[in-house]
Specification:
The protein is α/β, with parallel strands linked by helices. 52% of the residues lie in helices and 14% in strands. The chain has seven helices and five strands; from the N terminus they run βααβααβααβαβ. Helix 1 packs across helix 2. The longest helix is centred in the middle third of the chain and has 13 residues.
Length: 129
């Protein structure tokens, strides 16, 4: 299973010239996918979704994806605490995404955040687009 960071979804929704096609290919071509439900909050907070129609389209896009969504629950939060103890500079939001990936038993976490690709997390390969 692979796990996806929020930026993957934002690249697609914003039609990012360089990374949008790569992100779309990632969603289409690989097997089982997962992501934290936190993606909803981050995507819908985008300044580019400044009206109800765009917000509704983004929400429909997320709802129609064939993805296993991980709720932020006690197991994820305990994993977040462990990750942040081991990596004190890790931001809370990033720790939530990585912890969700671990709880979902993902082997790979795709992001385009270069601060995350340098992390060494046992059992999780963090890759850039």
């Amino acid at each position: 299973m692979i796990a996806l960071d929020t930026n993957i979804f934002i690249y697609i929704l914003n039609g990012h010239e360089e990374f949008g096609p790569l992100a779309a290919k990632l969603l289409k071509n690989l097997g089982t996918k997962s992501a934290s439900k936190l993606v909803y909050a981050e995507v819908l907070a985008s300044p580019k979704l400044n009206d109800e129609i765009l917000q509704s389209k983004a929400l429909s896009f997320l709802n129609e994806l064939d993805i296993q969504w991980q709720e932020v629950n006690d197991n994820v939060l305990i994993e977040v605490a462990r990750l942040r103890r081991q990596n004190p500079t890790l931001k809370l939001v990033d720790a939530l995404h990585i912890a969700s990936s671990i709880v979902m038993h993902a082997e790979t976490f795709f992001t385009n955040d270069q601060n995350l690709t340098s992390l060494k997390i046992a059992g999780l390969d963090i890759k850039s687009l």
